[in-house]
Amino acid sequence: MKSFTFLFIILMITSCQFKSTQSAESPLGDTIQTATGLKYLYLKHGDGPKVVAGAKVGTYLSLMVDDSVVWDSNELPDSLFTFTADSTRLIKGFTEVMRLLRQGDEIIAVLPDSLAYGAKGAGDVIPPNATLVYDQFKVVSVDVPVSVDE
Predict the structure, then answer these.
(1) Which of 2, 62, 81, 87 is the residue whose CA sits 20 to 30 A from 93?
(2) Rounded distance, CA 135 to CA 69, Å?
(3) Higher pLDDT pick, 16 / 92
């Protein structure tokens, strides 16, 4: 079943018409590809605040590599993955996709190895040159920082 799910996601991403830019009007299910090779598609559009530098972001994620789920925060108790946008050391592709989203968005994202862990991989979990597939990527909360100038 995992093989089918992974294959379905890849087929969905590669068979849809590619858009070179993202907008709030991007149709659900249309694959968007950035200049860096990041691919993503919307499952649901949110209407909350956009992710900006310094925002505290909470997400639920499921990460697949080579047909297997390697991390799923949806199944763990108290598992909201939180971080501060642009000030936490995260892989390039994760940072790139987060800056395109807003609270309430749900997407599938495919990160090429050049935006992930590259030739080094990540320990025993992510092999070298692996493409990462976030088959569930839900932006649950975005707490935008208050400017000191206000």
Answers:
(1) 2
(2) 9
(3) 92
The type of residue at 130 is A
| Cβ neighbours, 10 Å, residue 97 | 25
Q: One-letter amino acid identity for 32?
A: I
Q: Which residues make beta-bridge pairs with 63?
A: 71, 134
Beta bridge partners of 71: 63
- Per DSSP, the residues of 14-80 read HHSPPBSS--TTPPTT-EEE-TTS-EEEEEE---SPBP-TT-EEEEEEEEEETTEEEEEGGGSTT--
How far apart CA 93 and CA 107 sit, in angstroms, is 14
Q: 62-104 pLDDT, tens per residue?
A: 999 988 888 888 766 678 999 999 987 899 999 999 999 999 9
Please give the model's pTM, rounded to 2 decimal places. Answer: 0.79
Question: In the structure, what pLDDT confidence band is assigned to residue 146 with cuts at 50, 70 and 90?
Answer: confident
SS3 (DSSP) at 125: coil
Please identify, in words, the CATH class of the domain defined by 2-143: alpha beta
